[in-house]
TrEMBL record:
<keyword id="KW-0812">Transmembrane</keyword>
<feature type="domain" description="EamA">
    <location>
        <begin position="130"/>
        <end position="255"/>
    </location>
</feature>
<feature type="transmembrane region" description="Helical">
    <location>
        <begin position="219"/>
        <end position="239"/>
    </location>
</feature>
<feature type="transmembrane region" description="Helical">
    <location>
        <begin position="187"/>
        <end position="207"/>
    </location>
</feature>
<feature type="transmembrane region" description="Helical">
    <location>
        <begin position="79"/>
        <end position="97"/>
    </location>
</feature>
<comment type="similarity">
    <text>Belongs to the EamA transporter family.</text>
</comment>
<protein>
    <submittedName>
        <fullName>EamA family transporter</fullName>
    </submittedName>
</protein>
<keyword id="KW-1133">Transmembrane helix</keyword>
<feature type="transmembrane region" description="Helical">
    <location>
        <begin position="12"/>
        <end position="43"/>
    </location>
</feature>
<dbReference type="InterPro" id="IPR000620">
    <property type="entry name" value="EamA_dom"/>
</dbReference>
<feature type="transmembrane region" description="Helical">
    <location>
        <begin position="159"/>
        <end position="181"/>
    </location>
</feature>
<keyword id="KW-0472">Membrane</keyword>
<feature type="transmembrane region" description="Helical">
    <location>
        <begin position="245"/>
        <end position="264"/>
    </location>
</feature>
<feature type="transmembrane region" description="Helical">
    <location>
        <begin position="55"/>
        <end position="73"/>
    </location>
</feature>
<dbReference type="InterPro" id="IPR050638">
    <property type="entry name" value="AA-Vitamin_Transporters"/>
</dbReference>
<feature type="transmembrane region" description="Helical">
    <location>
        <begin position="128"/>
        <end position="147"/>
    </location>
</feature>
<dbReference type="Pfam" id="PF00892">
    <property type="entry name" value="EamA"/>
</dbReference>
Length: 272
């Protein structure tokens, strides 16, 4: 779980090094290609056997997958890795707390909202477009979760996710051509973009698949809470993106809200 989280955030950090040459769009394009190759090789989707009823959520998942990565990487370029990932994490947190009816869940929602407001408070240097893109990534991640559930019910195994990744890669082909024509890539930039795809797509997917065979889903979900903190640490150590006290406090609030919510749900299931 630690390896998966660090790999994901380190991949995003390495990918950001290619922004001056390829831009966020170019890096995301390469990442989509890598994800498609890995997922297709692992799941081997039978595309011809899919029905229209199965294809509909797959196409929606493909659009959401591409939009999520594009908005997140553009947000990283504008506001930094830690803040972008923290805002994106509000998406799954909203899904987790959306249907809750208990008082503790309400308090968790308040704490998370306070963290989000702190991150987005008006300042002379505030990048509102970057913040908005982070929130768009959050909405896409929430949609990704819901669509993945639907795809999982309609298509066995990981074939649906692989099909969506493949469609998303095809959608990004014209984008890739345009990026190459406008910004001729260097070997170093392409290497960083490929590394981002491997570390942020291939490694986490395979590591999570391996982990979920041995770790309860509740414990896995609880550990996912630390991703914003890992992103902030990787951005600080690897990219020199230092954060102030309010930002660290806001990240801690979002992480704490999800942690408390997960622990409360687990205790309710076990009757503790």
């Amino acid at each position: 779980m630690v390896g998966s989280g660090l790999s994901n955030q380190t991949g995003a950090a390495i990918g950001s090094l290619a922004f001056p040459v390829l831009g966020p769009v170019g890096v995301v394009t390469v990442r989509q290609y890598v994800a498609a190759v890995v997922l297709t090789a692992v799941a081997r989707p039978r595309l011809r056997s899919l029905t229209g009823w199965q294809w509909r959520p797959v196409l929606g998942l493909a659009v959401v997958f591409g939009t999520m990565n594009l908005s997140l990487y553009t947000a990283i370029d504008r506001i930094g890795l830690g803040l972008a990932v923290t805002l994106e994490f509000l998406g799954p947190l909203a899904i987790a707390l959306g249907g809750a009816r208990r008082r503790v869940d309400a308090w968790c929602a308040v704490i998370a909202a306070a963290g989000a407001v702190t991150l987005m408070r008006p300042q002379p240097s505030t990048d509102y477009l970057g913040l908005g893109l982070g929130l768009l990534a959050a909405c896409c991640w929430a949609s990704y979760i819901l669509l993945n559930r639907t795809v999982g019910r309609r298509i066995p195994g990981a074939q649906g996710s692989a099909a969506a990744a493949l469609v998303s890669a095809v959608m990004f082909l014209p984008v890739g051509v345009a990026v190459v024509l406008r910004h001729p890539p260097t070997a170093g930039a392409v290497g960083c973009a490929v590394a981002a795809g491997v570390l942020s797509s291939a490694v986490p997917y395979l590591a999570d698949l391996f982990t979920l065979r041995r770790v309860p889903a509740q414990a896995f979900g609880l550990f996912m809470s630390v991703n914003p903190l890992l992103a902030a640490l990787v951005g600080w150590i690897g990219l020199g993106q230092g954060l102030g006290g309010p930002e660290w406090g806001a990240i801690a609030a979002v992480v704490s809200a999800n942690t408390v919510g997960m622990l409360a749900r687990d205790s309710r299931r076990t009757g503790a």
